[in-house]
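so i finally got all the pieces together for this one. its two components total, 564 residues if u count the protein bits. some of the lines might not be protein, just check the labels. i wanna see the whole assembly predicted at once instead of chain by chain like last time, that was a mess tbh
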Amino acid sequence: MELILLLFIFVLAAFLGFELIAKVPSQLHTPLMSGSNAISGITVVGAILAVNSSVGGLSAWLGFIAIILATINVVGGYLVTNRMLGMFKKKDR
Amino acid sequence: MEPLIFVNLSYIAAAILFIFGIKMLGKADTAKRGNLISACGMALAILVTLFSKGLDYKLVFAALIIGSSIGFIAAKRVQMTGMPELVALFNGFGGLASLLVGWAEFHRAACPGDLVTHLSGGEIAVFTAAVTVLAVLIGGITFTGSIYAWGKLSGKLGGRALTFPAQKLVNGLIALGIIVIGIIFSLAPNAEFAYALMIILILLSLALGALAVMPIGGGDMPVVISLLNACSGLAACAAGFVISNNVLVVAGCLVGASGLILTVIMCKAMNRTLGNVLFSGFGASAQSSGGESTGELKPVSTEDAYYILEAAKNVIVIPGYGMAVAQAQHAVKELGELLEENGAEVRFAIHPVAGRMPGHMNVLLAEADVPYEQLVEMDDVNPTIEMVDVAIVIGANDVVNPAAADDESSPIYGMPIINAHKAKTTFCLKRGKGAGFSGLENQLFTAPNTRMLYGDAKATVTGLVAQFKDS
């Protein structure tokens, strides 16, 4: 049952994703991409769980590296997007 | 409240924040807030996960701190011109992380020697095995694909499409191998040989990622980058299925879907199918037909160019990757201001696939403080291009190549272009006389109303600026 539920969520999220992005002006494509790229770092949650539930051993270390990589993705992604968006200004004269 | 329910409710809240964040990122006025909201969602998801269980605090916090520091420094240091590479690199890390999560989960279930299991009780279900395969496969392809793209974009691996004999055959065989091994693994995840299969699968996925990006030319990078972005989302999503975690599934899927949409938009902007971009090895071979030059290249000095610009009342600037390479955006902005003071209307016409990632030119011009009202899209410029006195093409090539409109034998035939050749006068800033990134001849350069300004784009534009200031 849990599986079906997850699949259900998956399908709905896919449609939602398509709807959200369908009409975005091209000037925002780069921030949108790097912003959503940061979201894909959500896998950090999975990595933390992987470390949590292992006691030492290879999977803990795999999880450890995964956390580092995913955190780079998350932190770097959000900051870079923020920097970029800070540059988009309206004409002020 | 029961802890597990609390965790899941928080995940739902995080998912809602992501959705609002992405929605607000799609509008110029709210984009910055949207990014913050989505970051809040991420922080919430991470914090809740941290406090949900007994933790190996040392390991987790050490990793979080190392990762944050590297991400922080990279994001602060990067030049705006280096943005495509950095996004590709981050993207690759996300993909590799998903691969490792899949592997770690499998290792835990397969080698009960060092595990305290909380999810699967040792026996791996077929479905779990199948999604593990997907997480590893997509994550692996995303990783090496992104790293290869990063190498191409930063010039470390050469930007051209690289092909070798029987390349498609090799890629096809690897893909076939992955499918076969993936199916065997999924059906018998508890068998003794399963671990060996997992390792082979990881290696093959990593190989396929690099090999798949290898034959794709630099001009097609916007498509590749957004596709890899979608892949990293899907990899996270697959990892979510592996550990039955709803926030991974939702967030990963949102990213996957939005990345795919962007990819489709990019493909449409080049009037090509995704398959054509990925598999044609476009730009590797020299052009076989068409494009023979029917005229002379007419160089012009900055002084003469200045006199023409000085009289112009309606100017458009068409930037391309060359502007990014030459870091000319600030000089270009200054020239634009001087032209405006001189009474001309100045607009920047941006082709959807100009540069190396979607929206690349917009970011650069924004960095140089060009107000975004001045940036116009291809479809807004083309109908009135005949009224334009001077079109200044800066380091762009394919996106203004008239062959796309009228030469059926051209590989880029059918791609929508900015009709710079229809402007009264066209200046082309170009480093040398060679063909462009895609290796195609461009008839715009030999058109009767075109004047070539050779040299580094930044130096040329600075020269023009100096002419204006001296007079």
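Chain A touches chain B through 83 residues (CB under 8 Å).
The mean pLDDT of chain A is 86.
anyway lmk what u think
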